[in-house]
Fold these 4 entries.
Entry 1:
Amino acid sequence: MTLLPVTAPHPGFWTATAMIAAIILSSTAGEVLTAAAMKSIGDLDLIRAHSGLKGAIRAVLTCPLFFAGVFFLAAAFFALLFALNHMDLSLVAPASASLTLVTNAIAAKLFLHENVDRRRWTAAVLVCIGVYFLAH
Amino acid sequence: MAHHTLTPRQYLILALVALCAPLGDTCLSRGMTQLPPIALAHPATLVAAVFTPWIAVGIALLIGFFASYLTALSWADLTFVLPATAFGNVIVALLSRFWLHESISMQRWIGIALITIGVSFVANGPSLTERPQPAGEPVPEEQTQ
């Protein structure tokens, strides 16, 4: 590919940190709210088996928590688009993806009361470091 | 108590979660770096970016990711589903190595190993936190294994 992308000058440390923090915070809030919504709805495969695809879609679209989750996920999406326009993928992707895993594990433990045992903490940390190495 | 093991169909949904997200992100990245810098003062240009080809394909893949992600979250914990999402990066890296013949640095191989070990930790455990059924609520139908 010979296309030459036009990129913005690289932002300073605090601006870059703020951009990545915005992605992480909104993404964590969105994922926890969405997970809470899906747990309150129940197994979508079972709902689809009983009420069809329309029934499953209706079950999701009539859940207010789902829209709260989508709002924050949309905010995270636009924060990601904005950051990618100003910074390299090699910085934005590993920083946001790896740190989001840890913040989500903390939030899932605190707000969703998931059983985040030693096995899951170990996995979160290993995957966090792994994603950083892989995407950096 | 059910052990919450996954059915082949549920593994397929986790595979979709893993694949669609990194492929979608790659398309978005490619699309956004080809655009001129966007300022916060002009948010409309960010919306217009949605209709460029690479970003449109990226969004289509991310919609596929979101549908399978929601389905997975309805029967598994968030801390079980998220490592599966990260495993998609490993699949994409291996595809780029063996299909596109791109070279993978030692650092990336270490990353691949760490993610694989981390995901295997989670995959060997239960997919859903056991909770006592609150009194007065209807008992959901048992899932067929």
Entry 2:
Amino acid sequence: MSTSAIHTGVAPAHTGPTISEPLRRFLTVARGAGVRISSAESIDAMRAVDVIGFDDRTTLKDTLSLVVAKSVEEKQIFDDCFDLYFQRNDFAKSNEPGFRSQPQDHEDGEAGGEGMPGMGGGGPKLAAMLLADDRVAMAQAMEQAAEAIGLTKISFFTQTNLYTRRIMEKMGIRPVEREIEALRKEDSDAANDRADRLEGGRERLRDQVRDFVERHLAMFAKGENEKFREEFLKSAKLTNMERRDQDRMRVIVRAIAKKLAEKYGRNRKKKNRGQLDTRKTIRRNMAWEAIPFITVWKQKKIDKPKVMVLCDVSGSVAAMAQFLLLFLYTLNEALSNIRSFAFAGNLIEVSDILEKQDIDQAILKIMSTVGFGSSNYGNSFLDFEEGYFAAVDSKTTVIILGDGRGNHTDPRTDIIQRLSERAKRLIWLNPEYRSSWGTGDSDMPRYAPYCHVLTVCNTIRHLEHIVTDMLKGSR
Amino acid sequence: MTGNVDQLLGSIDAVENGLGSVGYIANRQICTAVYLSHHLHKPILVEGPAGVGKTELAKSVASYLDMPLIRMQCYEGLDESKALYEWKYGKQLLYTQILKDKLGQLFGLTETIEQALEKLHGFSDVFFSHHFLEPRPLLRALQQENGAVLLIDEIDKSDQEFEAFLLEILSDYQVTIPEIGVVEAVTPPIVFLTSNSMRDLGDALKRRCLHLHIGFPDAKLEARIIDTRVPGIDERLRKQLVSFVQQLRTLELKKLPSVSETIDWARVLVLLHANMLQADMVRDTLNVLLKFESDIEAAGKQIDSMTHKARKEAGFVD
């Protein structure tokens, strides 16, 4: 990859243009919002913009979307981002729309010093602007002040007030405030009138600056915040997940599962190095009298795992169960066959519901039919043995998700033993920490000897590791 | 010829008009993509639901530019011997047989095996030269002197390995054949890749392409498409059927009707000499639009109201 990146990077260098500052900044914003843009793509974006020009906003949007956003979701994010970014100068109406306005602003400011209100010197100027309600000048001054204090570094919404105040100070609000104070002391009609007008102007300015800061926050900090939140959620305990995080959690789970599915979803073959497959070689070379022009080597086909999941959906484990099911069903293409069962007091097969309906709704439905009761493991395992034991063969991986707390009912470890002997592997996932296994009504230690894998599983990370191991293990 | 192409793809408007002239009504974004593809020398990856005209786009570009269309249909198990090149084994074999005597004479003079080998090396790789090379679509596209449109159809159906194999041709318009060396494109072809999103394509592939997503067209565009594709259609009927299909797409169906289905349906209605949308007729011909029994059932309940609305939108009140 790197060579081609360099390659494409070199080519346009002759033709001249370096990546323009506003475009670069826009790409930073888009990246922050979650569009993945490689450096090669930035260069492409620059070349494309070079061909297309800045004149037509729609064409520019189409172009950048073609070059930069590489999936439907990304295109959606990109569109939002583009619109957000290019309405930034909305109260500087006289400026050209699009990229151009910005660099010009900066250049003006630096070259002429005209709109650059310093710490104190900007005072009277700002007062004049406020009184005249000169929006264009204010927008310019605001942009420059924002630049000077490094507004792009903003990363949390709690910083909004701080940055708003800083920008206003940079624009020279202090002298204005002092003037208002002085005018109030003077207490003549003319002075009060001026003070009122100045105060009005200050309020308007504050609103505008705050608005401006908030938009910046939306653009520059979104990516950081999302990333941070995602990392946090991945290792948060699923059993005490807040409701508002569940949707986001689903998105994360789907993303991980998709990645794994992509990696393991193909029919994989392993070459047996150096062993000629005589039969296939002869057949392949029939066309030229079986003279072996093409050699075929022996291969071993790697089976996709066949999975049966038994989920405890009683109150204590329900939260975990829905994520496990979501994970496995998103993973569908990496598995050859998946059957799922839900149990609390009794066990039922839920494959049908899960396959027919949208997974989120299906899970809700399952929860409402069997969930939230008190669990009886022995009973449920008996149901499984009677109904579905025949379907378990030496290629099946059985996953049981549960805390092993059967409310002091018979654990029926004998069934688990038979199941363990019959299946390829028996994986038990327990959302409880190891230290509490065996306490109270937990039968975990009794089941433990029959499990090939027995592990704590209560975060998305655990889930990811376990499923990855399972997929790898089928080699 | 290249000059000609430059002219034909000179501006986005030119592309739009050009595609229109061969019967492909494209929106602005599609035209921008084709325009950019030519000017940046980048392949276009076209994604979108089935039947919105992904493959048709490549065909239309080929016919507009008057270039040969070289099409490669992808499927699982497709490998380089079917996509790129193969040796003509039969011919190689035949030639060795014919030349047997000749070779015999040559080697008759040598005394030891070493000498014979030495002599053999002197002949270089006669049997692995261009004469014995059978070009497959990819190689053929590179060899076209006047350029070509290369359509790699349904890339998502191929294996990931094949996708990786395509990277070289997509970024540098060249392929490496071990026995011969690097074959570069005479004229870089215009490359289209299509995908139905059966699986997610790799980042490396996406990075090398312009990514164009064609969704369902809006009513206006669809009406224009129908107008071009089904010339004999009554204007009132056209308005109604477009409105009907647009409504149908807002329902929750397994497979939404695509542009190709709309066109088929329009043709059917023209054949039936319809000039108005009638609920009965719609019910009878719904299987042209919808391909699943459950979808037909789901839509069936709302036919009356949708037909009514379609008529109203087209300006008729009964």
Entry 3:
Amino acid sequence: MSGLALQNVVKEFGAFRAVNNVDLTVPHGTFVCMLGPSGCGKTTLLRMIAGLDLPTGGAIRLDGEDITRLPTHKRNLGMVFQSLALFPHLTVGENIAYPLRIRGAAKEDQKKRVDELLAMIHLSGYADRPVAKLSGGQRQRVAIARALSISPKLFLLDEPLSALDAKLREAMQVELRQLQQKLGITTIVVTHDQREAMTMADTVVVMSGGEIRQAASPIEIYRRPADSFVADFIGQTNLLEVQADSAGRAEVLGQAIPGLALPAGANKGTLSVRPEDVHLTAPGAGALTGKVTFVRDLGGTIETFVDIAGHQIVAVSTPRARPDVTVGQEVGIALTPDVCVVLKK
Amino acid sequence: MRREPPQSLGDYLPLLFPAAMLTIFFVVPFGTMIAVSFFQRQQGGFYTPAFVFDNYARFLSVFFGGVLGFSLMLAIIVAICCVVLALPFTYMLTRMARKVQVVWLVALLSILSLSEVIIGFAWSTLFSRTAGITNILVALGIMEQAKALTPSFGAVLTGMVYQAFPYTVLVLFPALVRLDPTLTEAARTLGASPLRAFFTVVVPALRNTITATLIMVFIFALGSYLLPQLLGRPQHWTLSVLITDQAIYQSNMPFAAAMAVFLVLVTLGLVALTVIAGRKGEAA
């Protein structure tokens, strides 16, 4: 099979299990974002794919070949580090040519390739500058170009954009995704920024506690999270307890919601509903009733905080559909089964 | 943080003490030495103030030129040996656990507490025929018969490298600790084996530190005068040995001073050359 496959990969540091039985298949040419809170094992997993750390158990295959124990320098990778790790003693051009020089490419070929890559990252004419003289965004591009100079089989990036300011980061996300699509290279990015993952990825892999919680397309993850951790980690959500009533119907905060189904064989669950799917109605008209505690008007969006028997629900609406509510007012909340996801406890 | 330049005379006060110490204990004796180097030696006596170049003229001979050349060559070899050994050693040391690092550094510091005399006699025992390391080789069946390895150039070199090695490690250590470990990792992901990563990234990134360390060990080794006598033959004696000989045993202060001044000048010249060469290399 062409692409990357992780099989039962385990990594232990002493008694601590950083990565626990990870199985993942990355088809050739896909863009994967590994997303999770710090300490979830995503960087360790990336380092094992790069060969910088060796797995305690399991296997890593690239295009069908077992590379679990293959030394890093024989894997033909390109990797961008969080610190970028540009070589301070080399110029921009020499940095980009480094992988070619190591592989003994001819001087003219090196120069040609460097010029090509500099054009690709919009830094033509920068070849002779020292890296210390570049701005943050420019260094970022040079690090990317250096990782791509041998046209690697795998392109790995560890929190590549975290050092940039917010605006530049957003722009680089788009640029990186467009570059990846143009080159069709298998890419794995580690990030803790869900917006970054949603922007760039074909597949988002949500990790926590050394395990994969869900691996799916961004919209699938957003619309159909596998569990409450994923629902809460990706975007904003409202989580409510769901229980089966005596007749077996799903009940939220004591109110039966028609059409809502509990997971098969369970009598308890967690309901996740995105703020933009919560509609405010007249009191009594919706499934639930609560009291408005706060209205956050951000101009572009309006967030209404509603308290229902001690549970807080946030509803987001656009200025056009601005709800006519004030703090302290009673409102109804419409919950239709098509926007609700019931997750296993 | 921006520092203001000193405004009033009072701001210079903290400098006064070190400046005074430096003047009394360094500038004045050195000035005296320069003055004495031009004095006239009196046969069988001491010396009388004069301004003659006899002492310098006497130095310009094949014999003293040879000794000067040998001293410089020995110091350069010691410096190169120390850096070549200490660089990989220190690099690996900085990648070890904190506890291991402390043990090694304490061990190295304890070598610094040994006097040159002890180091010299320890090595002359280790290199001797009766109690030396060759006996171990004989016991292992590698050698036929135990033999003395001292006096010899190798013994002098070993003793001096041993003495200068801890200094080299201590000078290199901070720079290597500060070196971003992801630089080598990046080199490995880009296709360099660990060994090539060391030579194409670590060594060039530390070029200035390495040059500074070479100069430091060179100067340190140039002043060595006990070890060449304890472990070497007369042809392995350095200029420092001859200076001592002239000053103390031959009572020829002016000539000893002239040699010392000459040694200082040559050393400064070599250091200046190294620095200039380093700058040129950087510009290229």
Entry 4:
Amino acid sequence: MNGAEYLLFILMLSVFLGFELINKVPATLHTPLMSGANAVSGITAVGAVALAGTGEGDLAQWLGAGAVALASINVVGGYLVTDRMLGFFKKRED
Amino acid sequence: MDTSLVTGLGYVVASGLFIFGLKMLGSPATARRGNMVSAAGMLVAIVVALLDQGIVDYTYIAGGMVVGGLIGAVVARSVAMTSMPEMVALFNGLGGSASLLVGWAALSPDSAPFTLITIVLSILIGGVTLTGSLIAYGKLSEKLGSGQIVFSGQQIVNSLVVLGIIAGATLFVMEPTNTTYLYAVIGLALVFGIMVVIPIGGADMPVVISLLNSYSGLAACAAGFAIDNNVLIVAGSLVGASGIILTQIMCKAMNRSLSNVLFSGFASVSNEVTEIEGEIKPISADDAYYILEAASSVAIVPGYGMAVAQAQHVVKELSNLLEANGAEVVFGIHPVAGRMPGHMNVLLAEADVPYDQLLEMDEINPRMETVDVAIVIGANDVVNPAAREVESSPIYGMPVINVADARTVFVLKRSMASGFAGIENPLFYKENTRMLFGDAKESLGKLVSELSS
């Protein structure tokens, strides 16, 4: 299997899995779901670090560094704010 | 051991943790741990990526991470829960722009055609997400007007932009070394993001913010193809799927199709004036107190107005006092109450309302007939009976919380102005409706002090 086919295969499976899992998230958690999704979309950092670390000092490296910064805001901010929010959700005490 | 094997296995572990974390988000009891599991997955993925042997210079990476991480931490700690919609909108845009930059940086003179196509896609989706989210942020934070911006010839301009994008993208793929095409595509994608969001009115923001959430994931996915990285594809498609599902839920809750939300506003259909029979019956806080004191079951239906009045804490106090008085109190939450999916739930959770006291629309409607008093706080369209009764109403067919089925309805409202969508509400004229005019927080404060004395 070549690269493109393999990646498309992964895409198909994860889209289906995503639909199944997210349909089970109750409406009460939809805001944390979205901010958590913000955090996960910061996964771009993984690609950005390789581009920011080439040591070439060219445009691509600067672009990569910008992407690392933007994605880091999402990762750190997204997970922290989601945690803060989920900390509010409590069950009735009795 | 071979480093590429370590990288590959690391990404498998990270993907598994993302999936498991998402699964744990299926219940409020496990959600917080689920978020931590997902964060652990992110940590694994980033550490593995840093071990990549291709990296020779860590200064740019460290700089980016420190700057971004600090900003993220400060924002996450300081943001008010009422401002979550703006924050999510902004973060959608950041995610999109990160993918745009990665796609751009991944470009090399010897990229294969398939890679070039995915680079264009990540630039396009990322660019649209960036500017679209900034406009959404402006509207939600009311830095821009929340209304629709429509001008004559808008459709023509949009069509030209789309044609320009297609032409630019095609030329770029054919001749990737010519940066003019690349910059044209980036510029047009940024313009298109603005054009897509400006015609959408404030009441439709829950849909837009969900859709942009999805785009930010799809952009990451496209970037994953561009740099041949599977963990980006897994994580990106999970986010993409999440945003699409939320978009569907929001559209269904407004009884509108996605294309209707995107391409036409309420204004074009809401000019019809319908005669409403009955009269407005105001009530004083004193009289409201006597009715509440005798009630054995109370349903509270909040809307965005509750957040604007910062009334969620006094609502919780009222609910405590009513329960101490022997009444059963529940909250009915409409899916589009507030400005993003689940916004009301977070605001009430922050005010210590337990989540099992918050009922979804489908849970509360069947029991509304047994409710003695329904209290509507800062909600309008989501409790509008015109959606069931008036066929000519622009919201006809939209599922609403049927507060009019309760024995008595209190509507807390500042004045008689129409709601966010500008639609008349026959609920205010119903036989069993009483209007408690004034600032919601003050009105509730009066009820609380009467009940606690």
